[in-house]
Specification:
- The chain has about 130 residues and is an alpha+beta fold.
- The protein contains 1 helix and 8 strands.
- It starts with a helix and ends in a 5-residue tail after the last strand.
Length: about 130
């Protein structure tokens, strides 16, 4: 009887150790972290460059912001409103006045957050 009790105790101890190791492995296994979503409002102007000098009265303003954000481009009293694509890119043609033009680009998220960038573009009729 004593031998049976000792054998049962050893078997029970081994069973508990195996179960404990399995539980520790489950608890310590790494959990995948989700990829960050592009939810932070930013604004990058790819064209034109700041302080650009051009010889045409129309230029294309393009860049990248939060996907589907509203983009407002103002220059010389004119205002153009567009929506960014699903990848955040945008592009619009604007007219310039002769001389120095302040081009203001504002991106507005669906939450109402906004970010603004200003560019100086000179339209010169003297360039060849």
């Amino acid at each position: 009887v004593l031998g049976i009790l000792i054998a049962f105790g050893i078997w029970r101890a081994q069973d508990m150790l195996v179960n404990n190791k399995q539980n520790n492995q489950i608890q310590t296994s790494p959990t995948p972290t989700p990829a960050p979503s592009p939810t932070e409002l930013g604004l990058t102007i790819t064209s034109p460059e700041d302080e650009a000098v051009v010889d045409t009265p129309k230029i294309t303003v393009s860049g990248k912001t939060l996907p589907l954000a509203t983009v407002v481009i103002t220059s010389g009293g004119d205002e153009t409103i567009i929506d960014a694509n699903s990848d955040g890119s945008f592009s619009a043609e604007i007219e310039l006045n002769a001389g120095v033009n302040m081009v203001v680009v504002v991106a507005i998220s669906e939450d109402g957050d906004s970010i603004e960038k200003e560019l100086t573009v000179v339209y010169s009729t003297e360039l060849e």
